Backbone:
């Protein structure tokens, strides 16, 4: 006698929805992992094609996932450290749209004048600051010194 | 002039760790999605093999992921609803351990007598209740009636 039901209490509709989510997430995480490994080789493209047909991924969605991955700074950083520079070219080509996006006009609302004003003030303030490439890195000597000073004065870093 | 750094401030070591995590997660979610689709076909096994070599997944880890998926009630429920009954046989064979786990003795501690006592009392109480297979399902007529009664009396369901 089975004491417990072997299956969960889910309707067919729920199951279909969850399966679709699993398929989409699996494809997405695979594209991320392959992008982080470096260049898009022929074998990887073949692998993605096989997988796309098994997981019912359309060409359009495949391209969208590739665009997401190729524009991801974290994945680009990993690829640069692991496989060297300039690994994104083939990925960028793979993800290219067949029909480019239509340019959209900036919407005009009652707050546009105020928003423009604030944006200009913020941009003027930002222009006085050094660009992020010239600021401290988290593992630099300077950062270590700051951390030491904060620690001996009992100040918590944010 | 680039205003922003194009790459994130991560060390090579961090990158290697994140890449490994991405590879493992991608393989894991793919095994889940394929298991939820139903039986393990020849094509799916081939696909998993190709992917395992690309993502540096060992045979042992592949088997462990398959065992995780085949013992997952949610994935089993989805497979049953989508592809029909008895889809787990080939998956179970694929995930089988080459060397069975050693049986482990139940540890004896100062609390063993007390724990056994409580377990026996709880089991006796549970034996008086109907088994879960015979209890109400969330979409059954009975459940809808209960929900209606609770609603008209302004009682919140937990």
Residues:
């Amino acid at each position: 006698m089975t004491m417990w039901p072997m299956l969960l209490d889910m309707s067919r509709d729920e199951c279909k929805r969850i399966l679709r989510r699993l398929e989409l997430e699996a494809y997405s995480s695979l594209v991320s992992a392959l992008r982080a490994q470096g260049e898009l080789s022929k074998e990887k493209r073949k692998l993605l094609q096989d997988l796309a047909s098994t997981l019912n991924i359309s060409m359009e969605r495949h391209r969208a996932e590739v665009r997401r991955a190729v524009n991801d700074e974290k994945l680009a950083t990993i690829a640069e450290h692991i496989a060297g520079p300039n690994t994104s070219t083939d990925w960028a080509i793979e993800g290219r749209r067949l029909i480019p996006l239509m340019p959209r006009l900036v919407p005009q609302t009652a707050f546009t004048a105020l928003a423009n004003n604030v944006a200009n003030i913020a941009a003027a303030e930002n222009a006085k600051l050094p660009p992020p490439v010239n600021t401290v890195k988290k593992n630099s000597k300077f950062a270590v010194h700051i951390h030491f000073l904060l620690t001996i004065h009992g100040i918590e870093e944010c």
